[in-house]
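note to self: the first set is below, dont mix up w the second
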Amino acid sequence: MSGYARGPFGVDWEDRIDFPRLRSDRIAAAQQALRTSDIDSLLLWKDENVRYLTSLRAQLIAGKMSSLNGVLLTRDAGPVLLCSGGEIDKASMGMSWLTAAHPIPIMEQRELVDGFVKATLAPLLNELGVAAGRMGVDQVNYSLVESMQTHLPDLQPTDGDHLMQQVRLIKSDDEIAIIEEACAIGDAVTQRAIDSSRSGRRENEVAGDAMQTLFYMGGEMAHVITPFVASGEHMSPPHRICTDKIIRNGDLCFIDIGAMWNGYFADIGRTMMVGKPSAMQKRVYTAVYRGLMAGVDVMRPGRTNQDVADAIIAEVREHGFGDNLFSLFIGHGIGMGANEPPYIGETLPGSTVFDLKPGMVFAVEPLVWVPDVQGGGGVRIEDMVLVTEDEPRILSRVEYDDRLLE
């Protein structure tokens, strides 16, 4: 199945993604994790967790992401979708794999939340035999927690997001095939932005062209809600949005938009040159590129995230820019979460060292910026990388800018 993106359509002449198997496998993985944990049930609201367990592709309202749709899962019963009233007919008529679907309000107004707990949640939990015990939750409004404490006093809320992160950590063959397809779309989006980046255009024009390609290709959304197109001095330090700045001759231009397809994300970033690069711009780009390649090379079973970070930092330092790395992690896990644990190069308190395992997928994204360089001295290159039993596989295929390599 995996190895390349075969195409997003269903066809009768080639094996492609088996979506019923994918849904069944995801539910089975979550239930197996529940059975081996001290958690009796899950009540989840984060988009990626709801999508993982129900396959609901919902309308999303800005600022309301974890207040619109939820899912209830127990160790033995299939997923119960708790969805916005605008989704209930679609779910009831077209999602036969669900155990049940119930309409809910936007989970904000205290009185409506309390009504949901009394009229919908409590009867469901009693019916499923999990009105007492430990319930894993992820992102919830505190009014929901208080209402559950009042009406379900024998229920103990606990962290369910960590369990779901572990369930989603190793991607199945079907999941990898979807990510391959998301990368193909993300490559097309990135290439459109590269082709549109030229002197005299604005950053937001480039982002608009790229977003048009995203939707033309069947993508669901960008990796970042705010498309990232930054040119020239806007990469020193990085402005992680697109603006009305006019791209000028001599500017570096960075694109980071990516794509989601069937719930899985591709996060791809490229820096390209408008005009001829300066010596410093070439030095910075070469350091980032060599650092990225050094990091990818050690992404094999038996190595750790720390090994990857050390390889990238050592190579960047060898080029003289060790003190110019962006103050953010250098890579992150990716799948149904646009940006999810585990992380590479995280330096904040609580950072952990973990072993790399086959089936892990990362977006690796070193960024170096140098101040006071005309046309910008900031470069990031970002690739999607799959850890395999053998050599790592770069899933993104957009070309690098050879004009910037020393």
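second set (the one i keep forgetting abt)
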Amino acid sequence: MKKENGYPFDEVELKIHDLNEEWQDDASPGSTGRRKGETGKVPENIRRTQYGVARSGRAEERRAYAGGAERKRRREKKRKRRSGGIVFPAVLCLLALTAVTGCVVLLLENRKLQNEVQVAMAYVEEVNAVTTYTEEEVHAMTAEAAAKAAEQSSSEKEMEILGEIRTRMENGEGTAPVLRSLYKDELVVAADGRYYFFPIVDTLKHHSYQSEQFQMNEDGILEYLVDGNVASKKGIDVSRYQEKIDWRKVAGDGVDYAFIRLGIRGATEGKLVLDTTYEDNMDGALDNGIDVGVYFFTQALDKEEAVEEAEFVLEHLDGYDVTYPIVLDVEEVTTKNPRTEDLTKEERTQACIAFCERIKEAGYTPMIYGNLKTFLLMLDMEQLEEYEKWFAFYQTPLYFPYEFSVWQYTSTGSVNGIKGDVDMNVSMKDWGKDD
């Protein structure tokens, strides 16, 4: 066997396919093609034994083999390109989808973070908005708020008061009653064209009467009730102005006692004068079972004149059974230029004490009669605490906090046996004969 260029070969048979001839491949491996109907070897005329022809055939075979391999590689490469052309875009799509999904997740997380940041910022702003104060500043702000509230309440109260004043004025009530209802912690005194306000003090004795227990009965008589029962006495006070009195009828009208004017001191000349009806009234009242007390209208300038008045009273009590108090009538007179016009409160008070002490020495019960002006403007009540008081006030409810025993509640009363008006009194004490 010869070798050339590393390829062993023997004589090569080159098959030349004649397009005009029919060939049929042997079914067995390694068999050579032949014409139909022939068997055995290739015709002699196509056998080539020359070296060049054989070599040329081998080269062509190698080229054919190489070409087939190249084509196979190309087909494989093309197939890979085709498969790669499908996979790569799919991968890209998958990557893109993953990227989009990631972006969405990031956006959602970002939105969540933004919300959390906003909440946090809002909280920070809220915290920053809270102002801290020192204790002194808190006290100052509290005081300011209280002042504003008080101012508002005061304004509302003022409107309420003004409305009440207007209503009561339209209903015919006077100024003094309206003021008294508004200034409950003070006593309002109308005198000399002015209004005086006196704080109610605890240094003076206060009475224990309950205003709602003073009630008018069906006959228009004021009574004081305790546990539903009448605990007061019906009384009158009279003078020459009532003229002739039928005391039998007075007694029949339920009058329990009478204060009878004994006399006066003249407001200008200062003379002591006995009331012209004194003796008749004393006899008439006592003869009809009516208890009596007496009163004297004073114009004493000092203690000496006050004692003189007391002696005058005691002189004219002789022969009478007087069980009710002996009263010093202290009130302002309307006479022009009265002799007591310039008296001070202290001078009047000392004159009252002198009169009362002399009456007490004689064994009688001294009493002072007066109204709001008397007790608050003209006299010093602290120095007169121990003496009984007869209070004149013609309105209800009761308007006097301090201790007293008898209330003169009207000057226009009516009693059988007396012509015209008469002063009516309710006494919370009974100084009758049986006590």
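remember for set 2: Residues 296 and 389 are 14 Å apart (CA to CA).
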